[in-house]
Amino acid sequence: MTSASFTNPIIAAGVSGLQALYADRAVTPVEAVDAYLSRIRGLDGALGAFVHVDEAGARTAAHASSERWRKGKALSPIDGAPIAIKANIAVEGMPWHGGVGAYRDRVAEQDAACVAQLRSAGAVILGLTNMHEGAFGAVTDNPWFGRTHNPWRHGNTAGGSSGGSGAAVAAGLCAAALGSDTLGSVRIPASFTGTYGHKPTQGLISLEGVIAMSWTLDHVGVHGRSARDCAHLLAAAVSADVDLAEEITRPAELDALASAPLAVLDLSELEGVSPAVRGALDAIVARGRAAGLDIEPLVLDFDFLQVIRDGVLISAAESLVEHEAALAARPEGFSEAYRRTLAIGEQASAPALAKAYRDLARAAESAREALTPYAGLLLPTTPGPPEPFETAAAASVALLTPLANVLGLPATAFPTGLHEGLPLSVQALAWEDDTALGLAQLLGVPFEAPESYRG
Amino acid sequence: MTSASFTNPIIAAGVSGLQALYADRAVTPVEAVDAYLSRIRGLDGALGAFVHVDEAGARTAAHASSERWRKGKALSPIDGAPIAIKANIAVEGMPWHGGVGAYRDRVAEQDAACVAQLRSAGAVILGLTNMHEGAFGAVTDNPWFGRTHNPWRHGNTAGGSSGGSGAAVAAGLCAAALGSDTLGSVRIPASFTGTYGHKPTQGLISLEGVIAMSWTLDHVGVHGRSARDCAHLLAAAVSADVDLAEEITRPAELDALASAPLAVLDLSELEGVSPAVRGALDAIVARGRAAGLDIEPLVLDFDFLQVIRDGVLISAAESLVEHEAALAARPEGFSEAYRRTLAIGEQASAPALAKAYRDLARAAESAREALTPYAGLLLPTTPGPPEPFETAAAASVALLTPLANVLGLPATAFPTGLHEGLPLSVQALAWEDDTALGLAQLLGVPFEAPESYRG
């Protein structure tokens, strides 16, 4: 029987495991970073998770980290962790294009605030991950930078917009990664790649230095192979002005989780959710109840379809403002498909946009009220498994993810196991990051490496 | 020498004074309300401050209040205070039209949240005050409900949009009044009528039951003849879910005010502010320094003209959403001038609106940063004195008031004395309501009644 994880223990270790190996001096950050760089070199040609790799920079950072661990002066639990960054987040000296052709030659002059935070925690930046053009889509079949394949099935989407981050984490090409999530862009790839993806409380990670898709709905989030790995990366990435990062981002334990009732979304009125996903949610609820959690079905009066329409309109209008100069100067640097999406914003009137903002505010208010009696809500992450590229673009995969963006509340997507060889996922939405992460840790299945990437 | 106040001591007493008279059993609420109703009957025909008077309802409420005071069971310091309500705020059983013809036959089915709060504090509602159509303007020359004249000079504007509230307070037709303030609509009439007007911290008074001009920028505010009267009304009107209403709304005393430096807006780069207003601001600064305040000039990097343009666009777009159904069903119930204003929103694109929201958010962020070292900011309320109706519509009087709406911070407009027979005003913007009110109390001149309304 093959192990379900990576055969190389350095790769299998993830963020938390590496920390232990570094502390025990069993492995150095230089060795770990070399192992990851070597995998990227060997495997990413076919996978397409990275759009930029900085071998020299990563090695330099790894050497400095090795020195710190050697002296017992590690900066944080993620000191020396090999991390990948989504291509819309500025990393000094690297391209900063957000998957848009118009910016392909732009180099970031300084780190985004969250990257600066990661560096000051000792993280090693391996490079940049591929993404859906402009973050506006969930397929990551990028016209300028290529496709990111699903590590579970070549030819299928890894999701998006942070498809590269999800695939890189799943394939063991980085220990963890940053992504961004406007309407589900961290959680959808997490769902499709069998990994953990956490969209934090709005504002917990700064958006400074991140190309906006929608400043109203954007969040920087984290991808990892466990809730604990996500929590480590989150703790290191939170804004400098947020106190108690470590405490708010540690996954909550069972005692705390069992102290208040949870809700599970009643899906009976919701069309388009596959039977397999419904089954996965039921299984997770059963698992939670067996662990001692009180989980009650909740019919949420929330118009998921209207919210995604409003979210797309708001995102299109705000994206147009973000890209105004480049659209005027280099319109050919935006694909036709992307321009068609942005046209949704261009063709709408100001009152239509005002109405969309108001709709979302009202939807959030009523959902907030309905959720008040509960510590959290369990719901599927995506309505189905990842599709082949040929059909993926037509699928509405962001049906169940925008709720957390609209609420500004944390949500962790976690794997629930495979169905016909492809991962399924559930998300835990909660009032606090540690609750969402704790539920994911308690209820998610341990990360399994896709078979063709284990060796 | 004539007294500068009202000859009738009941009218001269204002909110705080009435409370003392009631407590001493020198006057009953029934007597006070009758005195006010009699003045409205005699004087409002020419003034035009009210659009609806509820004599029967006011007398019933006054009787109940008199009973409470007789038994020593007053509900609050404003129990029995005769209050007027701006016509865009719902008062059960009264018209609820917001100065718009299309709604002239609509009757409110229940009280706005703030009116319910006032009633539970024992306030007596005299009636509804006139306003600029749809709250969208600062003249209060209403095509459906007539002009509100300035009590200081018939034929001049009392400001707007809460012109009726300001005029009613100044002319002694109510003890205090509620208004609303989106870009200055409480403070501009306060400036033009020589009264005190306070726009509270955003959200302190609920907007539930108030016709929206812009849900992004709307605030319910209070009009009174002193900072203390404003504070009493504010304390009674704050949302039921806000704690410590009494404490956050008591004007701060000198000791507290002198404990941190204040800023005064450097007007040297600002065009359109009259010499008289500049002189009034200088005099207030001198008065503050003499009282022991540390007041430093501040050049604020804030594009006042761009902000008013953005504010108007946002308000037009949001007003269109608010009035969508009525505009479709009864377009003839909106004046041509109002429809021209709303067209600003109709003709703008969604990205233009998104940009306006972003501009305002950025402007607020940078102003917030600049104000951080100071406890508050002194600046003129309006750029000049109230003009005759013939020229009033063309004047940009909302130049200096939107700053507080954009910041969501409290600001109190207070009178600084007369110039050529017309009032001038300065506003104190602060981080806390009690600071703004305290500065107004310390630096404002005592209310003076307009000569023709004293008797």
Helix count of chain A equals 18
Amino- and carboxy-terminal Cα gap of chain A:
14 Å
Net shape of chain A: globular
- Major sheet: arrangement of strands of chain A: 1-3-2-8-10-9-14-15-13-11-12
CATH superfamily of chain A: Amidase signature (AS) domain
Structural class of chain A: alpha/beta
* Percent helix of chain A: 40-55%
Oligomer: homodimer
Report the count of strand segments of chain A: 15
Using the coordinates above, name the CATH class of chain A.
Alpha Beta
What's the Cα radius of gyration of chain A? 20 Å
| CATH topology name of chain A | Amidase signature (AS) enzymes
Assess the beta-strand content of chain A as a share of residues. Answer: 15-25%
Greatest chain-chain contact: A-B, 22 and 22 residues
**Poorly predicted segments of chain A:** none
| Largest sheet geometry of chain A | 11 strands, mixed
